Amino acid sequence: MNWEVIIILILYLIAMFLIGVFSSKWVRKSSDFTNEYFLGGRQLGGFVLAMTMFATYASASSFLGGPGAAYTFGLAWVLLSMTQLVTGYFTLSILGKKFAIMARKINAVTLVDFLKERYRNKWVVILSAICIVVFLFALMAAQWVGGGHLMESVMGIPYVSGLFVFGMVLVIYTVIGGFRAVAITDTIQGVIMLIGSSILVVAAVIAGGGINNIMSGLISENPNLVSPFGSDQSLSPAYVSSYWVLVGVGVVGLPQIAVRAISYRSSKSMHSAIMIGTFAVGFVMLVLTLTGVFARVIMPEVSVADNTLPLLALELLPPWLVGIVLAGPLAAIMSTVSSVLLVASSSIIKDIYLNYVKPDATSKTVQRLSYGVTTIIGVIVFFMAIKPPSLLIWLNLFAMGGLEAAFIWPIVMGLYWKTGNSVGALSSILTGVIAFICFNTFISNPFGLHPVVISVILSFLAYVFGSLFTKKRFAAQRSEIVTKFWSA
The pTM is what? Predict the structure, then answer.
């Protein structure tokens, strides 16, 4: 065991735990538990909003899976990863002010709160909550696997023990601190990610003997490592460009990202967040994937690609600096899981229990259930992560694609198209999810594209035709909804 690295990481984990304890005082004092616990009282400033969106989006996939894929495919994966640059811009530009205004009108705390009032159909609510819980379980499992691998490779402890330490700290600070604790820790973790990724890419360039030497090394091993199509030429132009839908504009449909677009304090905060968030996502994705490619020359025999970044840090940096750098991926994983954990918990408590099981539940009951459900979800994901897949980025991308195919049009069209109704929303969710699962199972690259592209197109058509065919049937309801959402 490397105690200098371990001590720094333990101090980091203790700091996250204390933030949870500190944030719990707002939860205890608040007169509106659900608004404070699940949205932090809608008081996020620009920098905190940008960092929490960036930290939630950056994940084990960004710090472990992404560099691992870049190590495997070469510079083509760097090109592909840069399609994520527009994530923050599109999310806040498309949802931004309009989503926040509408959410405040109906006092929406979750994404499903918005869908419930916008479409007034219990099956839209139940189906949405089920999709969120199912796909977020897959997303959380991918992150926990990354956390366990990181603890294993850095601390030299068994994978399951690492998984337990990582999960215990994360669940405790999320359960007791709620959204405010998650947002504060996200901000600190976002800064750590920026610093850690910067240090590591500089160290990799120096160790590789400079950019020219690294490029020569890559070409001598396999010229395709510097081509735009990947080491095995499998990344076609259509596939790479379609990634823009999955990790760029499609992110608008992710519940854990969308909920942040209703939690900011003012328009000024939102505009600041767009600029800061776009820079942070672009910078970190570029330097991390470049580091993964550079590692191929420095360490040509890495057996598990997902371990590339922690192994590189251990190879190049002094122990105390390794601890700081590796707090970056740990931060990315913890920020994503804590956010997703809270969204999954809110779907069960707020969207299903309070809407359809016990609408008159007391605040004390809701509080106890929220703590209990959040803990139980954490325990279930722990057991799911005990036997991990070999390359966790695919599990992460599967969960992202499923959520985007389900929600992008009910959210976006629900905000901007007054004719959209519950039949359109239900058709869109069902079509998107079924198409995405079928394409992933039977035709991995339809027409050379990522499955999410075709799924999103089909779900859009389902939304439009479903709404138009039932337009007359919902005329009266449409008039009420338009008055509620679009009147001044």
Answer: 0.72
